[in-house]
Amino acid sequence: MPADGLCYDPDAARRHLSDADPKLAALIERVGEFRMRPPRAQSVFAALMESIVYQQLSGKAAATILGRVCGCFAPKQFPTPRDLLALPPERLRAAGLSAAKMLAVRDLAARTLDGTVPTLARARRLDDEAIVERLIVVRGIGRWTVEMLLIFRLGRPDVLPLADLGVRKGFARTFTRSRMPAATAMLRRAERWRPYRSVASWYLWRALDTPALSVPLIAPDSDAAVMANAVSERRRLA
Question: Which residues carry out catalysis?
Answer without folding.
Answer: 164
